[in-house]
Design a protein that fits this description.
Elements: E1 4-6, E2 24-28, E3 50-54, E4 59-66, H1 73-83, H2 85-94, E5 98-105, H3 114-122, H4 127-150
Parallel strand pairs: 4-5
Antiparallel strand pairs: 1-2, 2-3, 3-4
Length: 166
Amino acid sequence: MHAASFTNAKKPNQSSLLSNANDWKLLVDLPDYNFVFPPEIYAAAERPDIVIWSVKSKRVILIELTCPAEEGMEAAQVRKQARYLSLMNNIAINSSWKPLLFTLEVGVRGCIATSTQQVFQKLGLPRDDVSTLLKKLSTTVAKCSHTIFLAANSKSWDNSRALLDT
């Protein structure tokens, strides 16, 4: 997968995690792409869902998404943090980079963890955009869960069928 570059478009007087540099790059772990953790940061086999980094600021932001049952959201967050603890420690100890790890939890019935909203705000998204994004996430996850529920007794999954009806 190719890294995307982007510039933070926030107003200079508003602080976000991205406001201290203008050379941020983004990698997203998507199906059918060979995602390699940026070797200039640290040689690692782990593949967080999202990696955002800036050579200028020597900061790397790891973001991991999970969709647990609502009653297991806190446990899912702890599991994801534990999963990447070693990588975070290795980056901090063996390189000049400052790593940050955020987890995004969206429950299977559409409930969004407060920490998920906070991550988007820390990244500098405007409140209105965060609100819109959270509503879309909630609806998307609930529709996906419903589709999976309806197919629970099926002998096979129809890959040509859209998971979400628009």
